[in-house]
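Board notes (copied after class):
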Amino acid sequence: MDEIPSIIQLGVNAVKIEGRMRTPYYAATATEAYRKAIDSYYEGSFQLTDDIKEKLASAFTREFTKGKFLCSDEIFNIKKATGESKNYSKTHYKVNYQNIDINRQVADVSLPKHIKKAQNKTLRLFVRAYSSEDAIQAYKYGADIIYFDLFNEEFANLKNKIKCGLYAVTPRIMTDKDIGVILKRLNQIKPDGILVGNLGMLNLKLRIPIHLDYNLNCFNDIDMGYFDKINAMPIISPELSIRDLKRFQNKDFAVLVHGKIRLMTMMHDFKEQTIVDEKGEKFFLKKIYKGTELLNGKELGLLGKSRLLIKNDISKFFIDTDKNVAEIVSFYKNINNSNDSRLKKNYVLGWSFRRAL
């Protein structure tokens, strides 16, 4: 909040306050604080009173940092994140309220008149591999396309060892100064296509097939229509259930059926490789280009449940694992004849049977 003048002077015309999974009191207090700060700037006398700061601090259980904005060393502080170091006293409020009548209006949203209808009748496997050995195993046991890190030194050699499509995985985190490096590397290795985790790649007019990683959050037929126009095939959001996916008219997308879900992508560096939450659940921190990814400790594994996707004409499967690659790829390649009783105890179903909408 102290940096509101700098943010406005950069030419930024909107700021976002996180509200998801926060209390109404926190959302209201943070909004009020930033509203006053922004208004005071435009009134010519930017100021943050102690009252505003204390009220905002009391609404949150952890201390604040300024993140990457000032290139501070204190980007993320685990002790502060737990609230252990906070010395604010709690204030209790008594709220008098009454029922409020809300007039709900139907939004006038213009939806496309024609949504493309498409189905996948033929099973295809898209496999992300993390070593050349795993890539070769994936190809041997039935992968149609293999995703491999753009900057992996084995990329060029791997092209000579496998006969299926080899796509380069481009970084999720990239700034303007990275574009030249990425384009130069693509020109060197000449992949059959790319897996994109950053929308900035879509404006580079690359004349190769483009697949979109699931962090780009394709969620409905309108999204599908947009990406279809630019000839980009998405891996659909893993937050959608199988029932949600059945409702799509355009089913020309891939579904993550197996692997650790990437929960967060950050420009932070961590010494830790694993962290444990208050419930004892384990999460993995993995170093990536220009940052770190937080991965769920338990792998998603739809296994035999994937037959429900095939039954509903959804048969592009995405596998993202660095364990038992040959066995897993072989299982999904022969899904209609495979028995998952031995495997399924090690995996979770994620959102596959929980409605997101």
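Comment from the instructor: Residues 4-82 form one domain. The longest helix spans residues 24-42.
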